[in-house]
Write a structure and sequence with these properties.
5 helices; elongated; binds fe (ii) ion
Length: 156
């Protein structure tokens, strides 16, 4: 399916490849955040339970936006869990119910996504001439920066 938006097919395929890896990372981070929403133990249980819920709700919305962005440039997003696991750069750790370990794991993932986006943002706009996706991923990066700040505010 070709989108008549002035992008070559080759360039839109390259951008979709980048966005599909981002989508996989977002899916894994969503799943990890939801895991901690369920499997938390502590005297501030309700606060952390709700905090994680706010974060995974935001990630769910971002996942949808990334997948739909891929359709907008004429390509198809991955949609199967096995594809996400094959593509993601993030790792799943052993189970933990400990606040600091959970937050450190999530923070590392947000930071890793931020650094990945920072590396590819100019390439999307300049090499692949997709200014729309360049602006889009910059917005996603900003959302991760805010989430990373919120998580780090709980850490010593
Ligand atoms: Fe819940």
């Amino acid at each position: 399916m070709k989108a008549g938006i002035g992008l070559t097919d080759k360039n839109s395929q390259s951008v979709a490849g980048i966005l599909n890896i981002l989508l996989a990372d977002e899916q894994v981070l969503y799943s990890k955040t939801r895991n901690y929403h369920w499997n938390y133990q502590g005297d501030n249980f309700m606060e952390m339970h709700k905090f994680y819920e706010g974060q995974y709700d935001e990630l769910a919305e971002m996942i949808d936006q990334v997948a739909e962005r891929i359709r907008m440039i004429g390509q198809f997003p991955e949609g199967r869990l096995k594809d996400f696991l094959a593509l993601t750069r993030l790792e799943e750790q052993d189970y933990t119910t400990v606040q600091e370990e959970q937050l450190q794991n999530l923070l590392a993932d947000h930071e890793s996504i931020i650094i990945s986006i920072r590396k590819i943002v100019d390439k999307i706009g300049e090499t692949y001439k997709d200014q729309g996706s360049m602006d889009f991923v910059t917005g996603i990066m900003q959302q991760h920066e805010k989430m990373a700040w919120m998580i780090s505010s709980y850490l010593p």
